[in-house]
């Protein structure tokens, strides 16, 4: 028999506070449609979160020692990603699907072209995506969209792609999206995660939730693993589950 669907998705709800008492999350406060409200966490409820880890430490307020919140701020470092999309007249610019560009003189570090993945994604010409990383040592996010596009075009020319006609350009900015693993971060991260795992009815998982440099398939694997553990597991098995999901290869 087909199982019944349960549950409800609350979209556009911003979590503003996680209230804990006696080692359990008791309330999830949120803001939606301009008003504040809260969800009472019942004794049999479990809170699994993919909220960004640094945010979680702040949402928990006094429940965590100040030093831990401060060290989370230090080790959970994230670079901004700036995506420059160039619409060119040619039906294809690159021979490859994507190209990594380890040349510091070129502003982007990766190129990809949508038609390589699905030619039907674009009706006329081709769209080339130039990915630009921005962080404290290379603060490119402060540049205007026009400056970023001009530098991306220069980068393409430097690579030998000079014979193309630009039809349009667009920039999408993804602040704090790429993890930066600083030397020694593992010890502090583990302490932070272990402290959060002390909450009886709360787990912080996923790319942002555990500062884990993963892809979508890994995120799904973690989700399935969490569900299986919640149904069958005990706290010792949870440590094994953390260990199992800590070492996915970084693909890009
Ligand atoms: C730029 C970029 C490119 C990527 N490219 C690929 C790729 O090509 N292939 C691949 O496999 N993976 C890719 N990934 C990785 C993939 O996106 C992630 O692994 C996956 O989305 C992780 O899922 P998650 O649920 O752990 O975290 P997320 O999807 O990041 O979920 C965290 C959620 O928390 C929400 N949130 C934040 N603050 C609040 C708040 N206060 N209240 C409520 N919600 C909040 C965010 O809106 C977000 O939806 C990419 C990631 C990035 C950043």
Automatic annotation (TrEMBL):
Highest taxon of the lineage = Bacteria
Per its record, what are the GO molecular function terms? Answer: flavin adenine dinucleotide binding; UDP-galactopyranose mutase activity
Spell out the coiled coil positions from the record.
Answer: none
Any one cellular-component term (Gene Ontology): cytosol
Question: What InterPro entries does UniProt report for this protein, alphabetically?
Answer: FAD/NAD-bd_sf (IPR036188)
Q: What is this protein called?
A: Amine oxidase domain-containing protein
